[in-house]
Write a structure and sequence with these properties.
about 400 residues, 6-stranded mixed sheet, alpha/beta
Length: about 400
């Protein structure tokens, strides 16, 4: 069975070989065909719940564009160029436009990564800053839930504040994109800590859930207080191709995009199998992102495997273990991964990655197995489940959401 591998660094197919006596099926999302570039441009020019970008630019002196980082799957060079064209058509000059990478607590991007994400012309022609959660912040008070609001000072200085991001499932915010690109991407560490804490204290923060999600509501309040005026949201397919664009009001346009994204990412499940393989693509750059693979089962492995089943997380981890300046070891919100967080059964997780070592997975439960080659994975699964195993392979697990969750909201 072939699966895609190494987002941004080849996007190549690899083969997973299984014993002939095993019953193996690929559990795919609904998916969608790539959009024509002209339709993306037309969607940008017809915003949802907001004035046209040209009109906003005409009433502004400087634009700051918050952009998601390389851990999100959309190639944004074409979209960034369209946004620049609209801003300049509205009267802004190139020197009036700046980009800021919305890292949140993620690792800064290198130049080659910026080119992959935004295209060479944007990188060479416009200033690009990267949010640093400990420095260069503007304090704007607190949300109703007590979250202190620190935002990037370069972003705040502009009188037109907009964003470009991807609508993908997020384990706490429901879906990324919209206000999250600003409220988290531009945030200071205090904001990140307080907002993340909401997810651990309150119910209804999970992949695919927007309505009733307190963490999402907190983010949207931050977005309003930061003055986030316009959001550009993309939706991708299983190959990281852009299939739609939703632009306009950061909340209204995001909601419209979410309704569409649910249909694209929706996944109909077979009965629980002996083995489930969750491929982290297209969020397989580092170990920090690997648990996004559990979005496919809404963080509950019982949806996919039997009580004595085995879960395999497959990830290229091109950047190795990675680091998160809020959650990694030594950071203020650090905590080890607990088995109950993903309802792990009696068998420990198996991680398949050529670019990790046991030293990298020390925060995982002690019975986690790590293998650098696929034949080693098969040998362990054969030892556990014999020669008649059933297997479900989720080829885009970081994007996929269960069908019943996709239908939660219109």
């Amino acid at each position: 069975m072939k699966i895609l591998w190494q987002a941004w660094y080849g996007d190549r197919e690899i083969e997973l070989d299984f014993p002939e006596t095993w019953r193996v099926q690929k559990v795919q999302m609904a998916d969608a065909a790539p959009a024509h570039p002209d339709s993306l441009a037309e969607s940008l020019r017809q915003p949802i719940g907001a004035p046209a970008l040209q009109e906003l630019a005409g009433a502004s002196t400087q634009a700051a564009i918050a952009v998601e980082d390389i851990t999100r799957p959309s190639p944004l060079g074409h979209i960034a160029s369209l946004v620049i064209d609209e801003l300049q058509a509205g009267g802004l000059k190139p020197e009036d436009i700046r980009f800021i990478i919305g890292l949140g607590a993620h690792t800064p991007m290198r130049r080659e990564e910026l080119i992959l994400k935004l295209g060479r012309s944007v990188v060479e022609d416009f200033p690009i800053y990267q949010n640093q959660p400990h420095e260069n912040r503007k304090y704007l008070g607190e949300t109703q839930r007590g979250t202190p609001i620190y935002t990037n000072a370069f972003f705040w200085e502009a009188d037109l504040r907009l964003s470009i991001g991807t609508i993908v499932p997020h384990s706490h915010a429901g879906f990324a994109g919209g206000v999250k690109t600003v409220a988290v991407g531009m945030a200071g560490i205090e904001t990140l800590h307080a907002n993340h804490t909401i997810a651990y204290k309150l119910p209804h923060s999970m992949a695919g859930r927007i309505e009733g999600n307190e963490l999402r509501a907190d983010l949207e309040e931050i977005g309003r207080k930061v003055g986030h005026r316009f959001a550009v949201n993309t939706v991708v397919n299983s190959r990281r191709e852009l299939v739609a664009l939703f632009a306009g009001d950061p909340v209204a346009a995001h909601r419209a995009g979410v309704r569409f994204a649910r249909k694209v990412y929706s996944t109909k499940f077979p009965p629980p199998a002996d083995v489930a393989v969750f491929n982290a693509y297209p969020k397989d750059t580092d170990l920090v992102q690997v648990l996004n693979s559990m979005n496919a089962v809404a963080r509950d492995l019982r949806r996919a495997i039997k009580p004595d089943g085995s879960a395999v997380l497959a990830t290229a981890c091109t950047h190795g273990p990675g680091i998160h300046y809020l959650l990694s070891s030594g950071m203020r919100a650090h905590g080890p991964l607990k088995r109950e967080r993903i309802h792990l059964g009696k068998n420990g997780l198996i991680i398949f990655s050529p670019n990790l070592s046991y030293a990298d997975i020390g925060e995982f439960p002690q019975d986690t197995c790590l293998f650098n080659s696929w034949p080693e994975v098969i040998a362990e699964l054969g030892r556990r489940h014999g020669d008649q195993a059933t297997v479900s392979v989720f080829p885009n697990a970081a994007l996929q959401i269960p069908e019943e969750i996709a239908l939660l909201e219109d």
